[in-house]
Specification:
The chain is 35% helix and 20% strand. It is built from six helices and nine strands, in the order ββαββαβαββαβαβα. A seven-stranded mixed sheet has the order 4-3-2-5-1-6-9. Helix 4 links the parallel strand 7 and strand 8. It starts with a strand and ends in a 5-residue tail after the last helix. Bound molecules: NADP nicotinamide-adenine-dinucleotide phosphate. NADP nicotinamide-adenine-dinucleotide phosphate binds next to helix 1, helix 3 and strand 7.
Length: 205
Amino acid sequence: MTTTNQVSSMSASGPSRNVPTVGQKRLVIVGATGMVGEYALRDALEHPAVGRATSIGRRKLGISHPKLTEVLHRDFADCSALAETLSGQDAAVFCLGAYTGAVSDAELRTITVDYAIEFARVVYLFRPAYIYPVEPRKEPNFSYRLLRMIYPAFRVLFPNQVIRADDLARAMVDVAVRGTGEPQSLVLENRDIRAMVESLQPLRR
Ligand SMILES: NC(=O)c1ccc[n+]([C@@H]2O[C@H](COP(=O)([O-])OP(=O)(O)OC[C@H]3O[C@@H](n4cnc5c(N)ncnc54)[C@H](OP(=O)(O)O)[C@@H]3O)[C@@H](O)[C@H]2O)c1
């Protein structure tokens, strides 16, 4: 999962519900039909510093919002068609991904590595440990079903090995909006992500 803020150049437009006001950011969310991406999009739409959120994905979201623009893109191996969409954006939160076992190993690498590299080259790479699905979902496999069941004890015993999906999304959107002050690519481990969330608000249970 990545956040990039290498794209810039915000146009200063007049105040309107649909157009970012001066100082507001234009944010792209990739993979907003997924668990983490959906929270990231929700956060971006509610964030006062975000004037426009552009969702890029292969499926329709089925929602509308005055701040939301939706772009359908089927093949993330080739993002050249997205050049126009990405110009003038301030940052992107990349939540596109797949689970081990759901696709072949080669496909998993293509989706989680190649697509991210094709999309952006200067990134903040988020490396969460166990992402707790706040809202029940169809778990990808048995280990995720088990982790969900033992989460109340697991998070007490190993706090640095868990992060809630909504907290992770919040940290990603916050980094996209504010940056980290670091001039180059950065890898953020679960512990760093938790610290980041805690600096915004107390971590939720
Ligand atoms: N849960 C954990 O504990 C955990 C921990 C560490 C890392 N992760 C990783 O975090 C990532 C995101 O997790 P999540 O639960 O939010 O995933 P998710 O709910 O499965 O969402 C994945 C997103 O990626 C999109 N996508 C998948 N394959 C695609 C493809 N070939 N082309 C275009 N879009 C594609 C999906 O689009 P569609 O809706 O169209 O399918 C969806 O928007 C995953 O890679 C996961 O392995 C998870």
